[in-house]
Prior knowledge:
Blueprint: H1 12-26, H2 62-80, E1 102-103, H3 104-117, E2 125-131, H4 138-148, E3 153-154, E4 156-157, E5 161-162, H5 167-171, E6 176-182, E7 184-188, E8 193-194, E9 196-198, E10 213-215, H6 218-236, E11 238-243, E12 246-252, E13 266-270, H7 272-275, E14 286-287, E15 291-295, H8 298-310, E16 318-319, E17 323-325, E18 340-344, H9 355-360, H10 364-369, H11 374-396, E19 404-415, E20 427-438, E21 444-447, H12 449-457, H13 469-478, E22 485-488, E23 493-496
Parallel strand pairs: 2-3, 2-6, 6-19, 7-19
Antiparallel strand pairs: 1-20, 4-5, 7-8, 9-10, 11-12, 11-17, 12-15, 13-18, 14-15, 16-17, 19-20, 20-21, 22-23
Helix pairs in contact: 1-2, 3-4
Amino acid sequence: MAKKTGNTCIGLVFIIGAICMCLREFSPAVVGRQTPLAGRPAPMSLRGKKVAMHQGPPEASSEDKAEAEKRRLAAKQLADKRPRLAPIPMPFGNVSLDLSMMSYNQFVPRMYNMCKGLGFRKGKILPSIGFCSDENQGYPTILITKHFGAYPFNHGYIGGIMALDRHGPHAGHADDVVLVHAPHVGFEPDLQVYGTYRRRQIAANADSGDMQMSGTCGKVVGVLQPYIDTYNALLGRIRVKVEGEEVLISLSRLLLPSDERSAEDLAISLQFDKLLEEGALQNPYLRQSSSSIFRASESFAEKFKQIMSSEELSDEGVVEGGWYSLKNSKLTHLLTPDMFTFVKAPEKLQGEEHRLERSLLPNLPEVFTSPYDNELSASLICMQSEFDRSVHSVAAEPAYKGKNVMFISGLNIDVSPAQELQEAFPTTMFLPWAAYVQLQDGSRRVVEQSELVSELFSQSTENPDAIDMEESIRQLFVRKRSRITFFDTNTNKKKAAQVL
């Protein structure tokens, strides 16, 4: 049931006209997305087009003018703020976390009002979610139901992967459609780490009584773990030391090229030309029973000497003979992402259940060598790659033609509840990444992160169209119930089923 408002609108034309004036001032520039995914060039239809604006709107009402002024001031307020954190470099563009996130109770009404400003119609919008299946995604789903007045359609697979074969059924259920895509990552505020979440459904620790932590998103954690184990084993098999004026690198034979190991399900391939001096593989410094020793490349040797001269290394990773393993936390960064790649048998990566792994695989060296938690980086890559894949699908979908469509992508950050608040709904933050807008007249645009954040922030967090969830549920029990009937072909009569 929609909430009542104190004043009625003067007319739809007046509202659209005023909002369009605001959109002219704050509308994001159209950016053609250059995709690094092979075989997926950005369609020309997404480049250089802007949403068509209504021409010559009548003079707006005082209420509309006041709303426009509020939006103008909100946009200026955001523009005047200075971020404290640098954006995170990612494969599909830098991601800004600072001055970008918003709680779901603010994001959803802002998104709804943004849709209304673009011409989406009250009561005709069907949202769809591309969320993971985890239970802590329930609160965002409830808020979307409340503000859009309809339980959302489902476009999501576990891990935040989009099900792109569901556009037709979704489009057939409404005149206007919204797709919200968001993989998720847990955040534990006490430990200040990403990738974990406290769940009351898991038995408490027998000694402390504390609820147990578990990986979030569990799918992302599960995909990463074999690669993390392989990466850690790699660090332990690379050893470095200074011998006179030279820097020597000892490599386990397991890391050297071999036809027998090329068929392994999961392996690491080293870029020897960046790690070792030219021609070192053919002319090692010393061959041993289970390893070979090589002279390091000039750039690697210089970096190692700088560390040795400026820092006192701990005994972490030290082995006999003065060798240092790259497991030493002061040396791990010497193995840069351009020095290694992961290799997995193609037949192990087939099917939709492995799409997340296929998206992450080429980017894992950057994930493991970045200063951020692996789970956060991996979730951001999923967010970016799935938007890039899905936007082409949504834009080309015949069932969406002639409809108002918004596809918005971001990251759900699930803040782990405190021990004493286990009964409360979790706090979920939304980090917007990008959006695609397509209107009935065929105009379309891609909205990049900074413009999307600005547009959302300038929207009101009040939604007079939101339904009263408790009252709507109460009405189910008080209104007269329809009979459920079945047609009996033997008697050509309808028969009613008895309800308990």
